[in-house]
Structure formats: structure tokens, C-alpha cells
Write a structure and sequence with these properties.
The chain has one domain: NAD(P)-binding Rossmann-like Domain (Rossmann fold, 3-Layer(aba) Sandwich), CATH 3.40.50. Helix content is about 45%, strand content about 15%. The protein starts with 5 loop residues before the first strand and ends in a 6-residue tail after the last strand. The protein has about 250 residues and is α/β, with parallel strands linked by helices. It has a seven-stranded parallel sheet, sandwiched between helices. The chain has helices spanning about 15-25, 40-50, 65-80, 100-130, 150-170, 190-195, 200-210, 220-230; strands at about 5-10, 30-35, 55-60, 85, 135-140, 175-180, 240-245. The model has no long low-confidence stretch (mean pLDDT about 95). The longest helix is centred in the middle third of the chain and has 29 residues, at about 100-130. The protein contains eight helices and seven strands. α1 (about 15-25) crosses α8 (about 220-230), α3 (about 65-80) runs parallel beside α4 (about 100-130) and α4 (about 100-130) runs parallel beside α5 (about 150-170).
Length: about 250
């Protein structure tokens, strides 16, 4: 069957989320560009529309149950039932364990894990009715462990278990759930990492490229290409997988 053509991408105002939203629009999806800051989505929506696509900016706090439910319902009303969901929204609150506050731990867990749970639960109601769905969760090579990121690493590892569980539960409804685990991707978030480390972004990129077998760091378009594949109707036998997009066998 041909897939219904409505997608929600969270955290889509910039970086990987924006690239995924634009790629899915190019693929023919009507895309809900969702972010905590709706106004920040305007530029992404404008680029999609100028290229002939269809997009809608939606304010969603993925960590809030009512916001996730209302935002998903709005997408269904304005664009049609969403049958592709990309859980990309994320934050960093890096710190060493002995310095990490309860708030730094909880904020990361709430956005990455609770947010993916709430959005997936809201979207799957539309997917099961359609008999088709694609859920793509953004994990990270940090799921393997990373200094100063006990919260982020735990959340991204948790997303991998979440992905596999949803694949088992939802597969019989024609819904696949997979995760993408990016390695070093040049984004505003990695710029923040450079600042935390006290090095320039260019130095961080140069060092990172030397450690990657592909000889370069990744771009948001690299992640968008994989999300595009996973959202396709003919990717229906790929389910419950974690795909590392890191320029090598590990980040």
C-alpha cells in the first residue's frame, strides 16, 4: 500500500530536525514542523513552502502530556492523520556526575524519553487506524557512554529499548519503529559541546574527523537521508533496529 503522507518531526526548528522535515517534504509528505518555540519554525516552514512543499508550524512541548496530545490532534485536523513520527526533540545538560543536579538529570529524561513516549502514544492512535505507521526515534552514539553525559547517555540508551519494545507491540498494525544513532554531527548542539569543553568548534570538528573512518564529521542531511528511507512504505520489513550513522562501525 502507499503510505498516508503526513509526518510530524519534533525539535524541527533547526539542526537535524529541520533537515529531516525538509527531506520528508521533498519526499512528498505534508510536514508538521514541531518545536517548543513555534516562531523558530517559521524559517523551516518557509523553505519547505518555497520549494513547493506543504508544512505547518506547531508548538509542542513534548514533555507535557496535554501539549503532545493537543499538538498531534491539531496536525490531524490541519494536515490529516499523522502516520510518520520522528522523535528528534532533545536537549543537553552536560555535567560530571558529582556536579549533575536533579534538574539537569530530569530535564534530559523528560524531553528525550518522556517526550518520545508521549508523542508516540498520541501518534500511534492515528497509525493503528490507518494500518500504517513509521516511528523514528533519535538515539545517539552517546548511548554507548560518554564522559559528562550520564543523563544524555542514559536517555539515548533508553530510547533504544523503547524502540525495540514499540516494534514488538505495534508491528502487527503495520507500524514500524526504528532508531537512528548519529555520531558526530555538525549542529548547534555540538557547538555547545565545544563551548563546554573549552575548545573552538573548528578544533572539535577537526579532531572528530580524525577519529572517524569516513574521514569527516556528519551533517544533518546524513541523518535526514536515513530517516527518509525508514519512513518509506517499502521499508516495512525494517523494524526494531538501531542504525548507527557515525561514519564507521561506532562513534
Amino acid at each position: 500500500m502507499n503510505s498516508p503522507r503526513v509526518a510530524i518531526v519534533t525539535g524541527a526548528a533547526r539542526g537535524i530536525g529541520a533537515a529531516v522535515a525538509e527531506r520528508l517534504a521533498t519526499d512528498g509528505f505534508a510536514v508538521a514542523v514541531a518545536d517548543l518555540d513555534q516562531r523558530a519554525c517559521a524559517e523551516v516552514v518557509a523553505r519547505i513552502k518555497s520549494a513547493g512543499g506543504h508544512a505547518l508550524a506547531v508548538q509542542i512541548d513534548v514533555s507535557d502530556e496535554d501539549s503532545a496530545a493537543r499538538g498531534t490532534a491539531l496536525v490531524a485536523e490541519r494536515l490529516g492523520p499523522p502516520t510518520v513520527l520522528v522523535n528528534n526533540a532533545g536537549v543537553l545538560r552536560d555535567n560530571l556526575l558529582f556536579r549533575m543536579t536533579n534538574a539537569e538529570w530530569s530535564t534530559v529524561m523528560d524531553v528525550h524519553l518522556r517526550g518520545s513516549f508521549l508523542m508516540s502514544r498520541a501518534a500511534q492512535a492515528h497509525m493503528t487506524k490507518a494500518g500504517f505507521g513509521r516511528i523514528v526515534n533519535l538515539s545517539s552514539t552517546s548511548a554507548l557512554g560518554n564522559r559528562g553525559q550520564a543523563n544524555y547517555a542514559a536517555a539515548k540508551a533508553g530510547l533504544q529499548g523503547f524502540t525495540k519494545s514499540l516494534a514488538i507491540e505495534l508491528g502487527k498494525f503495520g507500524i514500524t519503529t526504528n532508531a537512528i544513532a548519529p555520531g558526530f554531527i555538525a549542529t548547534d548542539m555540538t557547538r555547545a559541546t565545544a563551548e563546554r569543553m573549552g575548545v573552538s568548534f573548528d578544533e572539535l570538528v577537526e579532531h572528530g574527523a580524525k577519529e572517524i573512518p569516513a574521514g569527516r564529521v556528519g551533517t544533518p542531511a546524513d541523518i535526514a537521508a536515513v530517516a527518509s528511507f525508514l519512513a518509506r512504505a517499502d521499508a516495512g520489513f525494517v523494524n526494531g533496529q538501531v542504525i548507527y550513522v557515525a561514519g564507521g562501525p561506532k562513534g
